[in-house]
Protein backbone atom coordinates (compact mmCIF):
# COMPACT_ATOMS: atom_id res chain seq x y z
CA UNK A 1 0.00 0.00 0.00
CA UNK A 2 2.67 2.53 1.04
CA UNK A 3 5.01 1.63 -1.81
CA UNK A 4 2.33 2.04 -4.45
CA UNK A 5 2.61 5.07 -6.72
CA UNK A 6 -1.01 4.73 -7.89
CA UNK A 7 -3.06 7.91 -7.63
CA UNK A 8 -6.00 5.99 -6.10
CA UNK A 9 -5.22 3.47 -3.34
CA UNK A 10 -7.82 1.68 -1.24
CA UNK A 11 -7.42 -0.81 1.59
CA UNK A 12 -10.11 -3.23 2.73
CA UNK A 13 -9.89 -5.58 5.66
CA UNK A 14 -11.66 -7.00 8.70
CA UNK A 15 -12.66 -4.98 11.75
CA UNK A 16 -9.69 -4.29 14.03
CA UNK A 17 -7.01 -4.96 11.40
CA UNK A 18 -5.37 -1.49 11.75
CA UNK A 19 -6.62 -0.12 8.43
CA UNK A 20 -7.12 3.37 9.86
CA UNK A 21 -3.63 3.39 11.36
CA UNK A 22 -1.81 1.73 8.47
CA UNK A 23 -3.79 3.10 5.59
CA UNK A 24 -4.86 6.44 6.99
CA UNK A 25 -2.65 7.87 9.72
CA UNK A 26 0.70 6.46 8.53
CA UNK A 27 0.20 7.67 4.97
CA UNK A 28 0.07 11.35 5.95
CA UNK A 29 3.73 11.74 7.00
CA UNK A 30 4.73 9.92 3.78
CA UNK A 31 2.82 12.61 1.88
CA UNK A 32 4.79 15.30 3.71
CA UNK A 33 8.12 13.60 3.13
CA UNK A 34 7.50 13.52 -0.64
CA UNK A 35 7.17 17.32 -0.95
CA UNK A 36 9.87 19.56 -2.34
CA UNK A 37 11.12 22.22 0.10
CA UNK A 38 9.81 25.76 -0.19
CA UNK A 39 12.09 28.78 -0.48
CA UNK A 40 12.53 28.66 3.32
CA UNK A 41 13.66 25.00 3.19
CA UNK A 42 10.48 23.66 4.83
CA UNK A 43 8.37 20.94 3.26
CA UNK A 44 4.64 21.47 3.63
CA UNK A 45 1.62 19.26 3.01
CA UNK A 46 -2.08 19.52 3.74
CA UNK A 47 -4.07 16.30 3.85
CA UNK A 48 -7.85 16.24 4.01
CA UNK A 49 -9.71 13.53 5.91
CA UNK A 50 -13.34 12.89 5.02
CA UNK A 51 -15.72 10.89 7.21
CA UNK A 52 -19.48 10.24 7.06
CA UNK A 53 -20.52 12.09 10.27
CA UNK A 54 -18.80 14.29 12.82
CA UNK A 55 -19.90 11.88 15.55
CA UNK A 56 -17.98 9.07 13.82
CA UNK A 57 -15.01 11.32 13.02
CA UNK A 58 -14.59 12.23 16.70
CA UNK A 59 -15.42 8.73 17.97
CA UNK A 60 -13.12 6.74 15.67
CA UNK A 61 -10.62 8.54 13.44
CA UNK A 62 -9.53 11.32 15.82
CA UNK A 63 -8.72 8.94 18.73
CA UNK A 64 -6.64 6.82 16.32
CA UNK A 65 -4.92 9.99 15.09
CA UNK A 66 -4.18 11.15 18.66
CA UNK A 67 -2.66 7.77 19.55
CA UNK A 68 0.12 8.62 17.05
CA UNK A 69 0.08 12.42 17.13
CA UNK A 70 -1.15 13.66 20.55
CA UNK A 71 -3.46 16.65 20.70
CA UNK A 72 -0.82 18.77 22.48
CA UNK A 73 1.78 18.14 19.76
CA UNK A 74 1.69 21.13 17.41
CA UNK A 75 -1.59 23.01 17.26
CA UNK A 76 -5.03 21.34 17.26
CA UNK A 77 -8.36 23.11 16.75
CA UNK A 78 -11.77 21.51 16.58
CA UNK A 79 -14.62 20.16 18.66
CA UNK A 80 -17.64 17.92 18.26
CA UNK A 81 -19.85 18.63 15.26
CA UNK A 82 -17.39 20.76 13.33
CA UNK A 83 -14.19 20.40 11.29
CA UNK A 84 -10.84 19.89 12.99
CA UNK A 85 -7.29 20.86 12.00
CA UNK A 86 -4.02 19.56 13.42
CA UNK A 87 -0.83 21.36 12.37
CA UNK A 88 2.34 19.43 13.17
CA UNK A 89 5.91 20.74 12.89
CA UNK A 90 8.71 18.26 12.20
CA UNK A 91 12.48 18.62 12.55
CA UNK A 92 14.89 16.13 11.00
CA UNK A 93 12.14 14.74 8.78
CA UNK A 94 13.35 12.14 6.27
CA UNK A 95 13.18 13.59 2.79
CA UNK A 96 12.03 11.12 0.15
CA UNK A 97 12.80 11.43 -3.52
CA UNK A 98 10.23 10.47 -6.16
CA UNK A 99 11.34 6.83 -5.83
CA UNK A 100 10.63 6.75 -2.08
CA UNK A 101 14.32 6.64 -1.12
CA UNK A 102 15.69 8.78 1.72
CA UNK A 103 17.56 11.70 0.13
CA UNK A 104 18.30 13.68 3.31
CA UNK A 105 16.66 15.23 6.35
CA UNK A 106 15.01 18.58 7.03
CA UNK A 107 12.07 20.47 8.56
CA UNK A 108 8.45 19.97 7.60
CA UNK A 109 4.94 21.04 8.48
CA UNK A 110 1.93 18.74 8.12
CA UNK A 111 -1.60 20.11 8.21
CA UNK A 112 -4.38 17.57 8.60
CA UNK A 113 -7.86 18.98 8.06
CA UNK A 114 -10.70 16.67 9.12
CA UNK A 115 -14.23 17.10 7.82
CA UNK A 116 -17.44 15.05 7.72
CA UNK A 117 -20.45 14.88 5.47
CA UNK A 118 -22.66 15.65 8.46
CA UNK A 119 -26.27 14.80 9.07
CA UNK A 120 -27.76 17.48 6.80
CA UNK A 121 -27.47 15.55 3.53
CA UNK A 122 -24.44 17.54 2.44
CA UNK A 123 -22.95 16.64 -0.90
CA UNK A 124 -19.26 15.88 -1.33
CA UNK A 125 -19.07 19.00 -3.48
CA UNK A 126 -20.46 21.19 -0.68
CA UNK A 127 -18.19 19.71 1.99
CA UNK A 128 -15.04 19.84 -0.14
CA UNK A 129 -15.70 23.09 -2.01
CA UNK A 130 -12.56 25.25 -1.98
CA UNK A 131 -10.43 22.58 -0.30
CA UNK A 132 -6.81 22.96 -1.41
CA UNK A 133 -4.99 19.75 -0.51
CA UNK A 134 -1.85 17.75 -1.15
CA UNK A 135 -3.65 14.43 -0.60
CA UNK A 136 -7.03 13.13 0.60
CA UNK A 137 -7.96 10.25 2.90
CA UNK A 138 -11.44 8.68 2.96
CA UNK A 139 -12.05 6.99 6.31
CA UNK A 140 -14.65 4.19 6.18
CA UNK A 141 -15.16 5.12 2.54
CA UNK A 142 -17.95 2.58 2.08
CA UNK A 143 -20.04 4.94 4.25
CA UNK A 144 -19.38 7.90 1.91
CA UNK A 145 -21.06 8.77 -1.40
CA UNK A 146 -19.59 6.86 -4.36
CA UNK A 147 -18.45 10.09 -6.04
CA UNK A 148 -16.18 11.02 -3.10
CA UNK A 149 -12.90 9.62 -4.53
CA UNK A 150 -13.30 11.22 -7.95
CA UNK A 151 -14.44 14.56 -6.55
CA UNK A 152 -11.55 14.72 -4.06
CA UNK A 153 -9.13 13.91 -6.87
CA UNK A 154 -9.84 17.40 -8.12
CA UNK A 155 -8.97 18.88 -4.72
CA UNK A 156 -5.43 17.47 -4.45
CA UNK A 157 -2.31 19.07 -5.95
CA UNK A 158 -3.78 22.46 -5.05
CA UNK A 159 -2.01 23.28 -1.77
CA UNK A 160 1.13 25.38 -1.60
CA UNK A 161 3.67 26.55 -4.12
CA UNK A 162 3.18 24.86 -7.51
CA UNK A 163 6.94 24.23 -7.76
CA UNK A 164 7.04 22.16 -4.55
CA UNK A 165 3.88 20.02 -4.89
CA UNK A 166 3.86 16.27 -5.14
CA UNK A 167 0.76 14.29 -4.31
CA UNK A 168 0.18 10.84 -2.87
CA UNK A 169 -3.29 11.05 -4.45
CA UNK A 170 -6.52 9.86 -2.88
CA UNK A 171 -6.57 6.87 -0.57
CA UNK A 172 -9.16 5.24 1.61
CA UNK A 173 -9.96 2.38 3.95
CA UNK A 174 -13.07 0.32 4.58
CA UNK A 175 -14.31 -3.00 5.98
Which spans of ≥5 residues are poorly predicted at pLDDT below 50?
none
Total strands: the figure is 7
Shape: globular
Q: Major sheet: size, sense and barrel closure?
A: 7 strands, mixed
Structural class: alpha/beta
**What do the pLDDT scores average to?**
90
Cα gyration radius (Å): 15 Å
The helix content, as a percent range, equals: 10-25%
Series of H and E elements: EHHEHEEEHEHE
- Per DSSP, what share of the residues sits in E-state strands of 2 or more residues? 25-35%
Distance between the termini: 16 Å
What's this model, at a glance?
The chain is of the alpha/beta class. It has 5 helices and 7 strands; from the N terminus they run βααβαβββαβαβ. Strand 3 and strand 4 form a beta hairpin.
Keywords:
alpha/beta; 7-stranded mixed sheet; 5 helices; 175 residues; 7 strands
Can you give a write-up of this model?
This protein is α/β, with parallel strands linked by helices. Helix content is 23%, strand content 32%. The protein is built from 5 helices and 7 strands, in the order βααβαβββαβαβ. A 7-stranded mixed beta sheet has the order 1-7-6-2-5-4-3. The protein is globular. The mean pLDDT is 90.
Layout of helices and strands:
Elements: E1 8-12, H1 19-25, H2 27-33, E2 43-51, H3 54-68, E3 75-77, E4 84-96, E5 102-116, H4 124-128, E6 135-139, H5 148-153, E7 169-174
Parallel strand pairs: 1-7, 2-5, 2-6, 6-7
Antiparallel strand pairs: 3-4, 4-5
Amino acid sequence: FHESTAFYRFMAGPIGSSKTTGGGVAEMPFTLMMQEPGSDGVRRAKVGVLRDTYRNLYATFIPSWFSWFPKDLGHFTGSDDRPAMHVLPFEGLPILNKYGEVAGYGPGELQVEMRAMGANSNTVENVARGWELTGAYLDEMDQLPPEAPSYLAGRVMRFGDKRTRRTRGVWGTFN
